[in-house]
Amino acid sequence: MCPLSNFKQGFKKEDRLDPIIDNDSYLMRDELDIKRDGFSRDRDRIVFSTAFRRLQHKAQVFSNERSDHVRTRLTHTLEVSGISRSLACYLGVNENLAEAIALGHDIGHTPFGHEGERILDDVLSGKDDLGEQLPVKINYGGFKHNFHSVRVLDVVQKKYENKKGLNLSWQVLEGILKHTKTKRCNNECRDCGKCWDIRRFVSDERVIPRLYLDFPFSVTIEGQIVCIADEIAQREHDLDDGFRSRTIKNDIGLEIIHYCEKIIKKYHQINKKESEGNQVKNLKLLENLVEKLKLNRASKDSYYKKETLIRNIIDYFIHDVYFEVQNQKENILCEYNLHGDLILKKEVVKFSPIASELNEKLESLIKIQILNSWDVNKFDGRANHLIKQLFKAYYNNPLQMMPYGFPALKKKIEENNAYYNIILEEDNFNIKDIDFKKSNKSDIQSVFSVLKLENIDKLNLPSELQNTNLKELAEKYDKLSKLNLSELKDDQDKFIKCLFENNYAFLSTISDYIAGMSDNFAIKSYEELY
Q1: At 461, is the secondary structure helix, strand, or coil?
Q2: What is the pLDDT of residue 275?
Q3: Domain count, the chain
Q4: Global pTM?
Q5: Are residues 311 and 368 in the same domain?
Q6: Second label for 289, Cα 20 to 30 Å away, from 179, 280, 318, 495?
Q7: CA-CA distance, 64 to 72, in Å (whole number)?
Q8: Are residues 195 and 63 in the same domain?
Q9: Do residues 140 and 125 lie in contact, with contact meaning Cβ atoms separated by under 8 Å?
């Protein structure tokens, strides 16, 4: 029996938030006796989405303008998928689920890699007003690519005309969310107000309990596999792309060997002092890696040395994870909850302490030699400028954006205004009546001015707020931000909440539009505007 086959996730209809709408798609397959589990269908929905196709022109670390051979988000995703599927096979768990999580894990990434992500996060968490472009800085929960990946698949992409999202299983969404950190602070953080707000990224708050946010790691084996596979893939391709771009020095192999030998010496001393040596196999793996690296360095073929260095490091990490699971499997804590979900209460799929030290060293070497390089910093500087200018342009005149985000914006305004009707008193115009396609431009611009928090004095303010300025309103909103509109009773509170939620809906429309761009489209859009 494989090490973790008892903890393999099985699919049931209740794993989707809305299982009923998918019933029609079973009919023909049942007649043909074609068997395909729900996780396979989740995988295919992700692969056939437009957001997935755009990954081919989104940068991983280096711009794909300089070479067709450096990784993009798409090729990185495919490498993570391959490693995930291999590990799932070795461990005897659900390969289709692991693959679905892997294929969707970076679907929410912005153009230009993490630099684009940082800018959108600063704007939506109130750290950056884009050079006083925004009238007030407000923390709306920020932006993080793993949270946005959930948003893309659960809100932005559509499978049905009147339904948000692709109706994926909770296991896929939870694994995607947990492939990287879910808090800005440490894991003990509780509602500090600075962390990313999951409510901003899902279509229905009923899904939140099944994301199991009390656990910083994925509660499925398959989700944990993707998390570690993402780490392995990054070490591999950062080295490869670094060699290709000549930002990594050729003697890094010798540096890796020296560091491995230090780790080996350290753990031999530890094992002599301990009666039991659980890390024996993991230590032997590292010793084998050193032997291979030394043998490869003796070759006069520089290409061979580079290729085998990367191949051997991948092989080492995959085997280390497998043996570490063997060490952990007797101590696995799990339970079935009221939903019938199989939940792991402990992180099982991870590097051994030995491999963790090597991984941290490799990450440090890569950051020093790649992230400090002229090429990467030039690319990041350009990205910073482009994203900020695009955001300013769309903020000043949102009609410069393609219109497919406006129906969702209108619907959000309608939902908010169901609690408090915000009316432009001069024109006696209710902002929820706007039609971004058919209304005249002056009405559209008037509504946008409300969404930008301009001309507040022209609205039907409650009498208690007649002489209040925007800064004071923002301070009051901050106290209401964790509450739903449906929980508010006072008209003053409803107005403030509705006003700023409309502002967030507007900013997130711009953010969704920019985040969905490929690098190429962002550059083209910038050039057309400026």
Answers
A1: coil
A2: 45
A3: 3
A4: 0.92
A5: yes
A6: 179
A7: 7
A8: yes
A9: yes
